[in-house]
């Protein structure tokens, strides 16, 4: 049951005008929270994980995307876009190339070349979210995800408050790398927090994500102390944590938080984001790693269970 907060007309109007950068709104999702969800994807993330399934979420800036399979070689240009796309230099696109592609985005008949990431107001986003409200029975609702939601706290707070004022259940996925006051500010408006925990070892975390995990571990401790509605999610990543030793460290850390309500969701690594790297003109950094076998995932799930924790595979 969602908490409901009343809003005055003036406050509602102010919140509706708050702006931020998002890159997608996914309707009817069965992931990232209970029931049917409407997932709003924030753009920008402080971490740079090599296995990221949403590489378009990492930069805060709008980015050009070329979906080769949707290109029909329309004939408007002497050279079709995918051929030009292959000419990207090591330092990325030149200004002239970007200007030329920008021109093409406006007239591509299939949307095969387009910009991703746009500035929108909370009111505009909520108009889209509201269309799914009839399907939110059985605990469904709005999920803020990304990218990292806490990099845009004004937009996050506005969306959460607007949703809760309408009785829409709210969830947020976070990597946890943010200042505590930001989480504290959003906490009253959240029915579910999906908290990613990738590695307990700080140096390994730094090596594979670009940043240490001190803030992430501290924020998790504080959220537990605040009795936040937490689910801990561990992406099982070969080469990072999908083996006995790092999983023992994660399970031990969570057990020592001392909260029997906590459960861990294991999210097995997949390669579905790989084609997005190509569309963004980037190389997929995790290409040498295969997907995990079901047996491997089950073994790791049993290992975590042996620490007395509730475990679910998938999220
Ligand atoms: S404008 Fe669109 S359809 Fe035409 S060549 Fe470019 S990507 Fe292909």
**CATH-defined topology of the largest domain:** TIM Barrel
Overall mean confidence score, pLDDT: 92
Q: How much helix is in the residues? A: 25-40%
| Protein structure class | alpha/beta
Placed side by side, the strands forming the largest sheet appear as 5-1-2-6-7-8-9-10-11
Structure description:
This protein is of the alpha/beta class and 315 residues long. The protein folds into two domains: 9-59 and 121-313, Alpha-Beta Barrel (TIM Barrel); 67-116, no CATH class. It has eleven helices and eleven strands. It has helices at 9-16, 81-85, 95-107, 122-130, 153-165, 180-186, 202-209, 214-225, 244-256, 274-279, 294-305; strands at 19-29, 37-42, 63-66, 113-116, 118-121, 141-145, 169-174, 192-196, 230-236, 263-268, 310-313. The strands form two sheets. The chain has a nine-stranded mixed β-sheet. A two-stranded antiparallel ribbon has the order 3-4. The longest helix is centred in the N-terminal third of the chain and has 13 residues, at 95-107. The model has no long low-confidence stretch (mean pLDDT 92). Bound molecules: iron/sulfur cluster.
